[in-house]
Design a protein that fits this description.
Elements (H helix, E strand, L loop, with lengths): L4 H11 L6 H22 L7 E2 L2 H4 L9 E7 L10 H16 L4 E5 L4 E5 L9 E9 L5 H4 L2 E3 L15 E3 L1 H14 L3 H16 L5 H14 L6 H15 L6 E2 L2 E5 L6 H20 L4 H4 L12 H5 L1 E2 L5 E2 L7
């Protein structure tokens, strides 16, 4: 019997709800609060209060893999009148590395953040917090304009390593996603979450912010209607046909093109991925389960029997993997 594609996608969304992993979310929140307090104590009056800045703040997170992005705003002269963005980034990395690395976590430099991955706890839970340091453009103006400069540690799409011009307003980014999702009665947020589940299952793909903006761009450009599958397909077709040339201005700074965070090769691969998925799903509706998977840890009622055990041909039941993150 053919798969009802929209019903399956709704089940995917339900199984990936963040609230289904409340214990792990609470652990992330506790670690975030601890790191926030420690940074404020260490850097003192040189920084403004850190805040959530990622998928959890935008309500686009899924429960199979998430972390907390902790935006950490610094004052213009925090590292001296001649201090650079690299000085800021290196100071944050050194503090977190000295505090956590090899003791209770792995601390690594990432594209624009410092990643902290805590060792598994007694429940096997892994908590990840990405600290993103940013510096205000002009002394004491952050409280009014919310603008920050980020340091690019390593190649970020078309943005070269060492670049110090990645300027944005993180608050504006968060508000942009929330406002558009509300206007579309949550359709945008659903599509973003579905694309994120695909990316996580695939093991690679664009940054979440890229997926968020290109989904919004599709809704702004096209008349997207129909059931959930028809809306998702329309966005996938838009990505397939436009990703190589699309411009995605940063809501926090129109001078930034978020499309530049992907290389030309990455864009070609993404276009090909979308085409291949659409073709396979149109050929056989059951194939939608290969790309958009129900979280086996939280199967919906009509998926429970299929997701709880895989029955081998010889009749031996094989429990599903219990993986998180």
């Amino acid at each position: 019997m053919a798969t009802n594609k929209s019903k399956h996608l709704e089940n995917v969304l339900e199984s990936h709800r963040i609230k289904k992993e409340k214990d792990l979310l609470d652990k992330h929140t506790a670690k975030r609060d601890t790191i926030k307090e420690e940074m404020e104590e260490h850097f003192g009056s040189n920084m403004y209060p850190p805040f959530n800045s990622g998928s959890l703040a935008k309500n686009t997170a899924v429960n199979t893999k998430f972390d907390i992005d902790l935006m950490s705003p610094f004052k213009r002269n925090a590292f001296g009148s001649s201090g650079t963005l690299k000085d800021m980034y290196d100071a944050v990395y050194k503090f977190l590395h000295d505090k956590y690395h090899g003791k209770e976590a792995i601390v690594r430099k990432q594209k624009v953040s410092v990643g902290i991955e805590f060792y598994p706890d007694a429940d096997g839970h892994v908590v990840r917090v990405d600290v993103v340091p940013g510096r205000e453009l002009n002394q004491d103006e952050y409280k009014d304009d919310k603008r920050l400069n980020l340091y690019v540690y390593e190649q970020f799409g078309k943005i070269g390593a060492g670049a110090d011009h990645l300027r944005s307003n993180i608050h504006a980014q968060i508000d942009h996603i929330k406002d558009r999702a509300t206007k579309e009665k949550d359709s945008i947020r659903k599509i973003i979450r579905l694309l994120k589940t695909w990316k996580i299952n695939k093991g690679s793909g664009p940054k979440s912010f890229f997926l968020e903006l290109i989904t919004i761009k599709a809704f702004d450009t096209l008349d997207i209607t129909g059931d959930l599958w028809e809306k998702l397909k329309a966005v996938m077709e838009y990505i397939r046909d436009n990703v190589k040339d699309v411009s995605l201005p940063d809501p926090g700074n129109s001078g930034n093109d978020v499309a530049d965070t992907m290389s030309d090769a990455d864009k070609t691969n993404l276009s090909n991925d979308m085409k291949y998925m659409i073709d396979r799903i149109e050929e056989d509706s059951d194939n939608i389960k290969l790309y958009f998977k129900v979280n086996p840890k939280h199967p919906c009622e009509d998926d429970a029997e299929e997701s709880t055990y895989k029955i081998k041909k010889e009749g031996v039941s094989e429990p599903p993997p219990a993986r998180f993150g």
